[in-house]
Structure formats: structure tokens, C-alpha cells
């Protein structure tokens, strides 16, 4: 990486000290009160998911080759499905881990002391980002094992290798999705000096995408491609525009990616909400490779978004004065 | 030359924080940066460490450029910021060991050094307590412990005695002085002039981003105070004394103070002053020749600046 303001060559590696930062931040996360709260939520959600899954499954099919995947997507009133819960809970967890990453150092007056050590700012930012991501990965893995373990106990069917592969890909997609929110939290933690403002700003972004982006995308699509009753193609154009606009939201990208990964019957991706995923119709199942290809653009979109947000945080942070 | 700058300038938008700074500090020196608030001391320090990029000019610390070679520079230079903070929920030991890891010290070496610096700063007993419960003085000593952890060649301290009680400040200054005996070059900024005078070999006076005066304290006194002898006397009654003393040929200035008078003269004229007081029929209570103090240099310099303006 290069400095934002100058393109002079710097001495040494930008990663010097990265692991020191990473392990310190990781230890901080794992011992924090925030983490205790998240752990309780994880436990509740895993139990809820398996319970909901078990209930639905008993009522419906007995012969299902993708039983484990059903556990992820089955909803039972009033409980949401496991993936719906994750897509709601993980952005908040990522924001909780990242909203005070940089401004916390300012507010504790530790930044100038840390940057006076032989490291670059890159190492500090990367260390914090990776520690957040690793913490989320740990949470996800724990959740995953819990759900698999519990469903083994309660449903008594061992998952097939394809199911495990799909579930792991689903975890990867979820990690990329969480990375986006960690990136957003990192940006707000650089932008706002007050931790409360930063948390609020990140949550505002989350609310914007969770509640309002759907409506805005619709309005935009209507404006760009107005519906004309005498033109049969106009409806299609409008649908396409709506799809394009709604794909600007990480939530849509994530919903589409996991739809392809968790639902082998899905053969093409349209604008769907997670609620529509529940009980989607099964066609003849697609092989894993095909499903992965289907989810590929969405996955790369999420990863690119994460990298882009990190780059924004990086540029902003490089320009910040060390002095508060 | 350990620290050397040429035409060092920093602008924040239209504000010029430091302008055309030419600083030269030799190995083993203790150098004091003085100046009123906002005169550019902290900005200078940040540029020396590469924590802020200069707008113009050159910096060399230990022959290294802070912008291009920050890693080798920061491995050898310790910095104690003016508002030093630690991770409150971590212990002193954990805070130090984080810094040791950032410096890439191998664990065994780090442990030995941490024990040594904590002992030296008198923090060995509280090493395993969370820093959140530390007093200001303890934090400051922990800050210095951290600086010494990397066994630096140069130590830069920004207002090291800020917020310390007189005794703690004195103790802290002794610790700083002990660095000099180890051959460490020290650059410190401060507002407490008598402290600076006590430990600094040379001082530089900043004013609006410029280094306006520099040298040993005695030299500065010579230059700013015009080599005058300052005599302070207490006597009762004071009426009419000032005029009488002003009449003495060697006296250049008489100033009334709460208890007595302050004279400036071209020579040590204490006998003449004593005689004049007695002749006026007053009782002389004290008569002392003052050593030139940095406080005075400082006060006088800025008085003159204000007059000139
Ligand atoms: N980030 C910044 N943006 C704009 N101006 C700044 C910034 N940082 C410092 N300044 C200005 O630069 C000037 C020098 O400030 P500096 O902190 O170096 O002074 P100082 O001598 O350390 O003062 P003090 O004794 O109060 O610590 C001041 O006028 C200050 O307002
Ligand atoms: Mg300052």
C-alpha cells in the first residue's frame, strides 16, 4: 500500500507490528463485556434456529437430502429463520466490535504513544480490522458448530459432505457480509471523534439499508424506467433497474448469495428478500459448483465492498493528525 | 549532531505553526523548548518523530529522515506525549508488554527490560494493577518506563512535569537528569522555567512558530537582560527611597515591589545602596544580589515584544 499524500518509498514493511496489534485487539474483544452479550445472543439464536428447524421439519418432509440447510432457512412463527436472524444480528455485532476502533485510541490518549513505536499506521488499522473479522469468524464458527451439533442431537441425521461444503461457503459469505459492516464501523470510527456518534452513524447506515433502501430502490427504478402499459418491455426494464439498484445494498448481495448457496433448487437470482427465502420452492437441485458460480458475483461484490470501505478508512486515517 | 532541522515549517491551512526552524542538538545534550501556548513546541516535536509531515524543510534525527525512515528512527527515539494515556483495563505490565511487542523485542529480553524499567521508575509493586487506578504521577512514570523500554538514544518529552505535584515533579526531573548521565540526548518542552533552568544545558525560546532565542541560560540572561546586576532590598519606610537610589549613577532602573525595591545596576553596588538607605534614615532589612533566572529572561523578552508591537 502507498501513502495517500505522497508516493515516496517507505522503509521497511507496512506490516511491522501487525500481529502485535492483532493479538492485543483480539484479546480485548474476547474479554470484553460486549463479547459476553454477543455470546448470550449466539446461544439463544442457535437454540432458536434448531428448535424452529425441528418443528418445521417434523411437520413437513421426512425425506430431504438437505436437512441441515433446511435448519438454516426454516422459520417457525414467531421465530425468524437462522439466516434471517444472522443477517440482522451480524451487522450489529460488527458495529459493536468496530465503532470505537480508532476514536477509542484518540479518546484514551494512546494513539500518539502507539504511533511513536516503530510501526506504520497501516499495521494499526489492519490489525484492528483483522482482529474484528477473526472475532466474528470465531463467533460464526461457534454458532455453526452449535447448530450442527444440536441438529445432530435433535434430528439425528448426519449432514452429507455437500451440505457441509455449502454450509462452509455460507459461512464465508456471511464473513464477507460482516466485513462490510466492520468496514463501515471502521470508517465511522475514523470520521467521528466521539464513540457514541460513531456508533450512531454506523447504526444509521444499517437502518438505512435495512429499512429504506428497498423503497428508495423502487422509487429510483420507477424514475429511471417508468412503466408504460403499452410497452411490454417496460415492465422488464423496470424490474432490471430495480434489481440493479437494490444490489447496491450489501443486504441484497448477501441475501442473494446465501439463497444460491443454501438452496440448491435456486437456478437464477432475482431481487429477493430473506423472508422470501423461507420455504422457497425446490426444483431439481443444482450441483455445488453451479450454485457457487451463481453466488460468485455477489460474493465478490461483498468482498470488493469490504476492501473499498477499508481503503476509505485507510485514506482518512492516514490524513488524520495524531493530536486530538 | 543528533537532531538537526533546516528551514522546518509546518502550516495548518493558513495557520503557520512552525516557521523556518533551524535546530541543532548535540549528542548528550539536554535541550529545553520554551514558549507560550500555541507557539509550536508540540508541532516541532511531532515533526521530529515523523508523526506529522512537515510542509517544508528538512529534519534529521540520528541522521534519519522521519518521513522516509520512520521505523529505524522510532526504534531509537523514545517519546512521551503531553497527554499520556494507557489502556486502563490492562495492567502496567500488560501495557508495557504490548509496547515491547510493537518494538519487536524477543520475549525474554522484553521481560528483563520491563522488570528493570518498572523497578527504576518505582512501579515494581504496582506492575500488576490495572492502569485505570493509577495516579497522574504514576502514569507519567509508567510513560517514562515505556520510553526507556526500547533503550533509546534520544528521548523527547512534551511537558513531562505537567500536572505533577512539586515533589513528584522534582523526582521526575531527577530521573530525566539521570538519562543525561547515561549519554541519552533529551529534548523536552515545558512552561515551568525554573525546572527547565535546573536541568537543561541549552534552551530555545519559541514565539509564534519561530525560534527567537537560543543558548545557555546565562547567555540568554546576558543578551536579554543586558548583563545587568539585579539587587533586591527590603527596608522601612520605603518613602522617598526609590528617588534616592535612582540618583545613583550605576542604577539603570528601580522597580517597586510588595515588600521592597528592585534595582538594576551596571555593577554590584550593594555597599552604595546600603549607605544610601541608611542615609535616608530607613532600616535595611535585606539586601541581595539575584542570580539571573529564566523566568526573568522570559518575562522581559515578551515584555519587549509587546512594547515593540
Ligand atoms: N491540527 C491542527 N489544525 C490546525 N491548527 C493546529 C493544529 N494543531 C496545532 N495547530 C496550531 O498550531 C499552533 C502551534 O501549536 P502547538 O500545539 O505546537 O503549540 P505548543 O507550543 O505545543 O502549545 P502548548 O504550550 O499549548 O502545548 C497553534 O496555533 C495551534 O492552534
Ligand atoms: Mg504542546
Automatic annotation (TrEMBL), chain A:
KW Membrane (keyword) present? yes
Name the UniProt record assigns to this protein? ABC-2 family transporter protein
- Which species is this UniProt entry from? Meiothermus taiwanensis
Keyword terms of this UniProt record: Membrane, Transmembrane, Transmembrane helix
Give the Gene Ontology MF terms in alphabetical order.
ABC-type transporter activity
Q: Name one GO cellular component term.
A: plasma membrane
Q: Where are the transmembrane segments?
A: 40-61, 81-102, 123-155, 167-192, 199-221, 295-317
Automatic annotation (TrEMBL), chain B:
Which InterPro entries does the entry link to?
Answer: AAA+_ATPase, ABC_transporter-like_ATP-bd, P-loop_NTPase
Instruction: Outline the extent of the ABC transporter domain.
Output: 3-233
| Native source species | Meiothermus taiwanensis
Q: Which GO terms describe its molecular function?
A: ATP binding; ATP hydrolysis activity
Q: What is this protein called?
A: ABC transporter ATP-binding protein NatA
Q: Which family does it belong to?
A: Belongs to the ABC transporter superfamily.
Indicate whether Mitochondrion appears among the record's keywords.
no
Q: Which keywords fit this entry according to its UniProt record?
A: ATP-binding, Nucleotide-binding, Transport
Q: What Pfam families does its record include?
A: ABC_tran
Amino acid at each position: 500500500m502507498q501513502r495517500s499524500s505522497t508516493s515516496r518509498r517507505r522503509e521497511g514493511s507496512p506490516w511491522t507490528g501487525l500481529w502485535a496489534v492483532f493479538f492485543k485487539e483480539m484479546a480485548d474483544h474476547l474479554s470484553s463485556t460486549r463479547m459476553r452479550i454477543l455470546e448470550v445472543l449466539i446461544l439463544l439464536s442457535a437454540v432458536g434456529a434448531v428448535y424452529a428447524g425441528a418443528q418445521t421439519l417434523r411437520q413437513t418432509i421426512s425425506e430431504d437430502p438437505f436437512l441441515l440447510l433446511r435448519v438454516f432457512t426454516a422459520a417457525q412463527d414467531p421465530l425468524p429463520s437462522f439466516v434471517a436472524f444472522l443477517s440482522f444480528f451480524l451487522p450489529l455485532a460488527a458495529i459493536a466490535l468496530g465503532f470505537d476502533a480508532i476514536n477509542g485510541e484518540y479518546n484514551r490518549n494512546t494513539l500518539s504513544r502507539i504511533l511513536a513505536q516503530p510501526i506504520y499506521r497501516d499495521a494499526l488499522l489492519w490489525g484492528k480490522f483483522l482482529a474484528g473479522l477473526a472475532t466474528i469468524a470465531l463467533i460464526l464458527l461457534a454458532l455453526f458448530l452449535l447448530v450442527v451439533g444440536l441438529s445432530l442431537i435433535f434430528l439425528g441425521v448426519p449432514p452429507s459432505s455437500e451440505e457441509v461444503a455449502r454450509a462452509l461457503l455460507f459461512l464465508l459469505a456471511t464473513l464477507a457480509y460482516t466485513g462490510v459492516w466492520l468496514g463501515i464501523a471502521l470508517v465511522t470510527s475514523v470520521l467521528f471523534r466521539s464513540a457514541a456518534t460513531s456508533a450512531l452513524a454506523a447504526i444509521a447506515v444499517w437502518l438505512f439499508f435495512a429499512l429504506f433502501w428497498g423503497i428508495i430502490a423502487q422509487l429510483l427504478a420507477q424514475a429511471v424506467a417508468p412503466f408504460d402499459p403499452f410497452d411490454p418491455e417496460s415492465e422488464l426494464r423496470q424490474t432490471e433497474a430495480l434489481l440493479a439498484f437494490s444490489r447496491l445494498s450489501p443486504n441484497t448481495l448477501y441475501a442473494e448469495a446465501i439463497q444460491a448457496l443454501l438452496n440448491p433448487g435456486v437456478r437464477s437470482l432475482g431481487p429477493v428478500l430473506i423472508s422470501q427465502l423461507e420455504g422457497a420452492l425446490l426444483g431439481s437441485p443444482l450441483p455445488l459448483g453451479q450454485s457457487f458460480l451463481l453466488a460468485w458475483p455477489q460474493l465478490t461484490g461483498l468482498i470488493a465492498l469490504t476492501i473499498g470501505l477499508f481503503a476509505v478508512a485507510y485514506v482518512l486515517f492516514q490524513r488524520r493528525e495524531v493530536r486530538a | 549532531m543528533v537532531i538537526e532541522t533546516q528551514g522546518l515549517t509546518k502550516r495548518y491551512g493558513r495557520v503557520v505553526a512552525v516557521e523556518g526552524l533551524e535546530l541543532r542538538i548535540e549528542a548528550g545534550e539536554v535541550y529545553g523548548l520554551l514558549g507560550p501556548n500555541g507557539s509550536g513546541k508540540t508541532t516541532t516535536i511531532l515533526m521530529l518523530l515523523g508523526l506529522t509531515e512537515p510542509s517544508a524543510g528538512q529534519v534529521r534525527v540520528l541522521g534519519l529522515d522521519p518521513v522516509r525512515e520512520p521505523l529505524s528512527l522510532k526504534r531509537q527515539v523514545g517519546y512521551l506525549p503531553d497527554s499520556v494515556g494507557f489502556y486502563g483495563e490492562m495492567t502496567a505490565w500488560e501495557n508495557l508488554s504490548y509496547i515491547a511487542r510493537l518494538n519487536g523485542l524477543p520475549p525474554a529480553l522484553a521481560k528483563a527490560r520491563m522488570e528493570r524499567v518498572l523497578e527504576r521508575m518505582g512501579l515494581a509493586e504496582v506492575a500488576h494493577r490495572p492502569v485505570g487506578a493509577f495516579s497522574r504521577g504514576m502514569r507519567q512514570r509508567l510513560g517514562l518506563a515505556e520510553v526507556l523500554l526500547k533503550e533509546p538514544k534520544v528521548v523527547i518529552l512534551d511537558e513531562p512535569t505537567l500536572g505533577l505535584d512539586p515533589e513528584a515533579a522534582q523526582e521526575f526531573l531527577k530521573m530525566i537528569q539521570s538519562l543525561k548521565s547515561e549519554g541519552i540526548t533529551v529534548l523536552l518542552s515545558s512552561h515551568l522555567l525554573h525546572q527547565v533552568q535546573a536541568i537543561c544545558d541549552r534552551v530555545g525560546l519559541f514565539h509564534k512558530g519561530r525560534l527567537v532565542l537560543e543558548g545557555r541560560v546565562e547567555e540568554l540572561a546576558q543578551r536579554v537582560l543586558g548583563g545587568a546586576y539585579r539587587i533586591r532590598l527590603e527596608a522601612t519606610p520605603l518613602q522617598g527611597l526609590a528617588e534616592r537610589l535612582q540618583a545613583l549613577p550605576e542604577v539603570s532602573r528601580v522597580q517597586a515591589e510588595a515588600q521592597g525595591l528592585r534595582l538594576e545596576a551596571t555593577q554590584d553596588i550593594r555597599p552604595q545602596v546600603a549607605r544610601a538607605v541608611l542615609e535616608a534614615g530607613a532600616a535595611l532589612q535585606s539586601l541581595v544580589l539575584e542570580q539571573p533566572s529564566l523566568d526573568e529572561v522570559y518575562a522581559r523578552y515578551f515584555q519587549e515584544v509587546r512594547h515593540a508591537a
